[in-house]
């Protein structure tokens, strides 16, 4: 439990004097856009590599401080990706935004203070100390990636890159990437053959960046 936060016998949070001074510096009336005091999704910044630890710590604090009516969900947004390494495909789960955690909450002095003072949290995303809620469009895009059943390819290729064909009838030819289809795991290239450039569509596994 936090050093300056205690629960009295009635179950209410008791704020120590020095803590009150910190909390009163956070003015809910200065928010813009969506109103603070309403339930929204927010983003908090953490030290990289501590995202899961922050999530778990916050969940424990929510339970111990009886804040389930203000902090509803905490997630580290991740998505499935197909990683190609050493010529093999492997499905891995990766953080969409390293160093960030999403939290569904009602922001007031108490909930803000608890989140902001959780170890390894560096702050809310917003103007100064005022959290800015995620827009509906931002939230939909992130949740779509999180809930996607089909993993996406994670390949370090860009249009214009030079690659070498490693498999198939065009093996050992060098080519230039002109188009990438991540959803199908294919890449369109131009290969110099017989004095002219010939387009070809290959699987990600068939090429290697030069």
From TrEMBL:
The lineage of its organism: Bacteria, Candidatus Berkelbacteria. It comes from Berkelbacteria bacterium GW2011_GWA2_35_9. SUPFAM superfamilies: N-utilization substance G protein NusG, N-terminal domain, Translation proteins SH3-like domain. The keyword Transcription regulation applies. This is Transcription termination/antitermination protein NusG. GO terms for cellular component: cytosol. SMART domains: KOW, NGN. Belongs to the NusG family. Participates in transcription elongation, termination and antitermination. Keywords: Transcription, Transcription antitermination, Transcription regulation, Transcription termination. Residues 38-146 form the NusG-like N-terminal domain.
């Amino acid at each position: 439990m936090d050093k300056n936060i205690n629960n009295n016998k009635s179950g209410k949070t008791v704020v120590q004097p020095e803590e009150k001074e910190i909390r009163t510096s956070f003015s809910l009336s200065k928010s813009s856009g969506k109103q603070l005091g309403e339930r929204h999704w927010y983003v908090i910044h953490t030290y990289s590599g501590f995202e899961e630890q922050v999530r778990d710590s916050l969940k424990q604090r929510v339970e111990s401080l009886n804040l389930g009516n203000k902090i509803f969900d905490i997630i580290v947004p991740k998505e499935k990706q197909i990683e190609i390494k050493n010529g093999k495909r492997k499905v891995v789960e990766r953080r969409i935004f390293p160093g960030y955690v999403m939290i569904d909450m009602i922001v007031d002095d108490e909930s803000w203070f608890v989140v902001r003072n959780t170890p390894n949290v560096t702050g809310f995303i917003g103007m100064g100390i005022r959290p800015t809620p995620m827009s509906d469009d931002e939230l939909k895009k992130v949740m779509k990636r999180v809930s996607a059943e089909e993993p996406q390819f994670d390949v370090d290729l860009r249009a214009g890159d030079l690659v070498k064909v490693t498999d198939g009838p065009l093996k050992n030819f060098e080519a230039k990437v002109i188009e990438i289809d991540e959803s199908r795991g294919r890449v369109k290239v131009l290969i110099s053959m017989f004095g002219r450039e010939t387009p070809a569509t290959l699987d990600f596994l068939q090429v290697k960046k030069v």
